[in-house]
């Protein structure tokens, strides 16, 4: 069976429609359909069947798509070995990041890669719900994702390789004149009755707010929800509520207008991962970027050790 046609079957398994496969592979839908019909003849079994106006994979098709992933990993592994012999981690790597992750990590990563030379990193910002980060690996070599869970078990599978980069504490953000701003540490009970600037449903910080409510024994009053932390910071600085913000990137233009306080009694942190398709994770250029991400994440954490005391659980 032709490897390129196997890859089209794998794309269909991940993207769900001929139209999306055509878009991703820069083909026409008719060309994709034709190649899949040829693959069916090579396989000797039906690989797809009609479902409404579209098609879905048969059991044989799903099994062969999983095999296509194994084939792709083997091919990339062989290519990576050759690149290592040549000592040549060159090429282009695409990366998607959530906004504060890009703010925190990518300038330093690009500087590290520029020092190596020969490798180009193309970056884009995305900010999906936590469960939707893996889908981005279909279009990007590396996806920076964050989760309230340190295990990221929902992300690790045969189709996704997950590399832990760092853990970032989350703080309670208050305007300077707030009555709680004078306390060294905040307890969940302190936050009862406060107006919260929250995040959209499904975002990682939402779970932390729920955990605070559970520990306090009272629901939190969320009056606004924003995905962009810059908008959240503006509302907190204006005295319109309190919020959870990532410790290492909070403040920005409002650094003198926001007070950050540690929270005890609740684990408040986010875990940052790099997600990849397993075949792309084999590429030497991709592994070089992952090494730069790890080094930069370590540098960020080290730079913030003195500024931020250890968390109190």
Question: Ranges with pLDDT <50 over ≥5 residues?
Answer: none
Number of strands: 12
- Under CATH, the topology of the largest domain can be stated as D-Maltodextrin-Binding Protein, domain 2
Domains (count): 2
Describe this structure in words.
The protein has 313 residues and is α/β, with parallel strands linked by helices. It folds into 2 domains: 3-83, Winged helix-like DNA-binding domain superfamily/Winged helix DNA-binding domain (Arc Repressor Mutant, subunit A, Orthogonal Bundle), CATH 1.10.10; 91-313, D-Maltodextrin-Binding Protein, domain 2 (3-Layer(aba) Sandwich). 40% of the residues lie in helices and 22% in strands. The chain is built from 8 helices and 12 strands. The protein has helices at residues 3-15, 18-25, 29-43, 59-86, 99-116, 204-216, 229-237, 284-304; strands at residues 48-51, 54-57, 91-97, 119-125, 142-147, 161-174, 185-186, 195-198, 221-225, 243-246, 259-263, 269-276. Strands 3, 4, 5, 6, 7, 10, 11 and 12 form an 8-stranded mixed β-sheet that branches. Helix 5 (99-116) links the parallel strand 3 (91-97) and strand 4 (119-125). Helix 1 (3-15) packs across helix 4 (59-86). The termini are far apart. Keywords: DNA-binding, Transcription, Transcription regulation. Residues 1-58 form the HTH lysR-type domain. It comes from Herbiconiux daphne.
């Amino acid at each position: 069976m032709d490897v390129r046609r196997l890859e089209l079957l794998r794309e269909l398994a991940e993207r769900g429609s001929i139209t999306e496969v055509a878009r991703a592979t820069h083909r026409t839908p008719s060309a994709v359909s034709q190649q899949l019909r040829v693959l069916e003849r090579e396989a000797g079994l039906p690989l797809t069947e009609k479902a409404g106006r579209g098609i879905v994979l048969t059991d044989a098709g799903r099994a062969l798509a999983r095999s296509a992933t194994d084939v792709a990993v083997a091919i990339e592994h062989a290519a990576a070995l050759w690149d290592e012999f040549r000592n040549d981690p060159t090429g282009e790597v695409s990366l998607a990041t959530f906004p504060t992750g890009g703010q925190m990590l990518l300038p330093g990563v690009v500087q590290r890669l520029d020092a190596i030379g020969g490798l180009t990193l193309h970056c884009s910002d995305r900010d999906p719900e936590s469960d939707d980060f893996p889908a981005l690996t279909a279009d990007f070599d590396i996806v920076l994702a964050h989760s309230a869970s340190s295990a990221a078990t929902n992300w690790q599978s045969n189709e996704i390789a997950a590399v832990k980069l760092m853990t970032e504490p989350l703080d309670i953000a208050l305007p300077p004149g707030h009555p709680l701003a004078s306390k060294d540490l905040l307890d969940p009970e302190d936050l009862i009755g406060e107006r919260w600037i929250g995040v959209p449903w499904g975002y990682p910080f939402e779970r932390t707010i729920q955990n605070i409510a559970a520990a306090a024994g009272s629901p939190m009053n969320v009056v606004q929800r924003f995905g962009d932390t810059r908008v959240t910071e503006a509302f907190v600085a204006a005295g319109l509520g309190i919020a959870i913000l990532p410790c290492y990137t909070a403040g920005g233009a409002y650094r003198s207008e926001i007070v950050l306080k540690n929270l005890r009694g609740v684990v408040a942190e986010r875990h940052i991962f790099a997600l990849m398709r397993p075949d792309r994770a084999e590429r030497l250029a991709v592994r070089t970027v992952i090494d730069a991400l790890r080094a930069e994440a370590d540098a960020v954490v080290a730079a913030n050790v003195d500024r931020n005391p250890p968390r109190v659980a």
